[in-house]
Amino acid sequence: MTMTTEETEPLSRRARAGREEEGGLTGARTLVSVGELRGAVNECRRCTLWKASTQGVPGEGVTPARLMLVGEAPGDSEDLQGHPFVGPAGAILDRALKDAGLGRESVYITNAVKHFKFEPRGKRRLHIKPSASEIEACHWWLGEELRLVAPKLVMALGGTAARALLGHPVIVSQLRGAPIRLSATSHLWVTIHPSFLLRVPDDAQRRNEFARFVRELKDALAWIERH
């Protein structure tokens, strides 16, 4: 599928704009390394999600990385521990990466939105999908991560991540499984979020969907090797 320049480079434009915007982001500056992310993300006030969350959750992993995985936003476990994909969806992702011959130590993992959005339900905190404005507010951070990680392939895990990277709403099933040029140096691969597998009620279907997800990770790795 061929995307226009306007469709494939919105994030890089927003990242530049974010760096140039005076006073638009408390504590924002062009980062020198991903090691600065944790402190910088916790200073961010571009949206209000920081008020209720425990902490910001920046990306983690090897830099530079050939493969970068982008999810939606931290969940309850991530918010408490301060690391991406450490809850139930993270356990599925770890298993899929292992089956595909990968590991966290060989990729960079992050989320489109860096703070947990939730609603209280008794003693539980239930995840809420980030709004368009909250996704937009976090574009600056995702742009910095892309710049510092310099991935050859970015895998968007779910529709929110794909929207954040492309700058417009997408239907995962329409873009899934084929590389799309994201910038002059990287491509995008859209697939499901691992949490989708938690919601599949039928055991056989869940196994099939998991196997498909693993195949996509293998296909993505093979694509990187070819390019």
The CATH level-2 architecture is identified as: 3-Layer(aba) Sandwich
Percentage of residues assigned to helices: 40-55%
Major beta sheet, strand line-up: 1-3-2-6-8-7
Structural class, from helix and strand content? alpha/beta
Radius of gyration: 17 Å
The fourth-level CATH homologous superfamily is Uracil-DNA glycosylase-like domain
What is the N-to-C order of secondary-structure elements (H for helix, E for strand)? HHHEEHHEEEHHEHHEEHH
For this structure, the CATH topology is Uracil-DNA Glycosylase, subunit E
Number of strands: 8
Distinct helical segment count: 11
> Main sheet?
6 strands, mixed
CATH class: Alpha Beta
Strand content range = 5-15%
End-to-end separation in angstroms reads 17 Å
Mean pLDDT across residues: 90
Low-confidence stretches: 1-24
Number of domains: 1
Q: What general outline do the C-alpha atoms trace? A: globular
